[in-house]
Amino acid sequence: MMKSDRGSVTIWMLGLSMLLLVFGGLALDYWRGLALQRELASVADSAAVAAASGIDEDVYRNSGSLVLEPGRSRDLANAAVAWQAVEVTSVMVDVEPESVEVTLTAEVELGLLGIFVDQSEPLVVRASASAIPVLIP
Question: To 5 degrees, how large is the angle CA 96–CA 97–CA 99?
């Protein structure tokens, strides 16, 4: 071995260790964002189903037509989101006569991945549900 090769293995191992730490940090940030997206999707789904149960009972009993009561549907969706243990920036509930759409937004805090990804846009998840009565024979 020559004197100029001395310590080259240490430098290679140090470089590989740093590379491993960088890729590990990127993977951790990616999975953090993915986990938040899946959690928001679950919360949005449950809020949409809860909001779709806000049927105007008087209209349904009198005419048999299915109409959602907007105020009640919004209250049910907001209660379903508040019951979950997830930090949400905003909740938007769009109530149509027979369906509802819930849109949730949240902030994702990225560490190393934030260098490569634009963090100015929040994470947005939408879910919808329709109010269709199930008749039990």
Answer: 55
- Would you kindly state where each structural domain of the chain is located, as residue ranges? 7-130
- What's the topology of domain 7-130? Pantoate--beta-alanine Ligase; Chain: A,domain 2 (3.30.1300)
The separation between the first and the last C-alpha atoms of the chain, rounded to the nearest angstrom, is: 88
Q: Provide, rounded to the nearest whole percent, the portion of the chain with pLDDT above 70.
A: 88
Q: What is the pLDDT of residue 130?
A: 72
Lowest-confidence segment of 36-45, 54-63, 70-79, 119-128 by average pLDDT: 119-128
Measured distance CA(120)–CA(131) in Å, rounded: 35
Q: What is the rounded CA–CA span in Å between residue 121 and residue 131?
A: 32
pLDDT digits (tens, 9 = 90+) for 80-117: 999 988 888 888 888 888 888 888 888 877 777 777 77
80's tokens? 């379903």
